[in-house]
Amino acid sequence: MKRFLISAVFALVAPAAFAQLPPAPVGDPAHPETVIEFGVPETVIVQTDEGDVVFDALIADSDEERQRGLMFREALADNEGMLFNYGEVQTVSMWMRNTLIPLDLIYIAPDGEILKIIANAQPHSLRPLGSDFPVLGVLEVRGGLTRDAGIRPGDIVRHDMFDNIEVAETEEVSDDGDTSGADNDPGADVPAAPEDE
């Protein structure tokens, strides 16, 4: 009986032990001392039935940036995230190696439609988290935020990479750089009063 219990405990513990990866060497994006520059966060808007949800998202559009992702981050504000740009439409798989906080993974079609959401992905898990569909990008946000903000499959993510940014009305610009329109100077079309002689 004692031998059976030891075997059962080993069977439960062994898969977790064998699932661990060796530490990444310095220079590898998965090493905490490797510096990866993501640039300035960009605005990403998710259009939901309850209204727009706006994020300041880092853009991961190189292999090194996508490999690092949100590894080693200790917190993520509700308006922060990371948008993975794969450059071409493909089925993708993510994992949570070296990720310290739970995340929601939002898989996005080339037109910006959300196809799938994985909520509260477990920190440090090496389990593959597949898109199941060809996607162009993945938006990662704080774990549980998609539920809290009412983000669902079928909602639309707006960003330049999806070529779906709605262009606001722009003012006409003349050759000399001046703009015309009512917004500039409400009295611009009013003739000047004659000067006293």
Key phrases:
two-stranded antiparallel ribbon, alpha+beta, globular, disordered C terminus, single chain, 3 helices, 197 residues, seven-stranded mixed β-sheet
List the helices and strands and how they pair.
Layout: H1 2-19, E1 42-48, E2 51-60, H2 63-68, E3 80-90, E4 93-94, E5 103-108, E6 114-121, E7 129-130, E8 135-142, H3 145-149, E9 156-158, E10 172-173, E11 179-180
Parallel strand pairs: 2-3
Antiparallel strand pairs: 1-2, 1-9, 3-8, 4-7, 5-6, 5-8, 10-11
Strand line-up in the sheet with most strands: 6-5-8-3-2-1-9
Total helical elements? 3
Query: Major β-sheet, in short?
Result: 7 strands, mixed
Shape: globular
Q: Cα-atom Rg, whole angstroms? A: 25 Å
Alpha-beta content class:
alpha+beta
Helix content: 10-25%
Mean pLDDT: 82
The CA-CA distance between the termini, in Å, is 116 Å
- Give me the count of strands: 11
Which stretches are poorly predicted, pLDDT < 50 over at least 5 residues? 1-18, 167-174, 177-197
Give your account of this protein's structure.
This protein is globular. It has helices at 2-19, 63-68, 145-149, and strands at 42-48, 51-60, 80-90, 93-94, 103-108, 114-121, 129-130, 135-142, 156-158, 172-173, 179-180. With 197 residues, it is α+β, with helices and mostly antiparallel strands. The protein has a seven-stranded mixed beta sheet with strand order 6-5-8-3-2-1-9. It starts with a helix and ends in a 17-residue tail after the last strand.
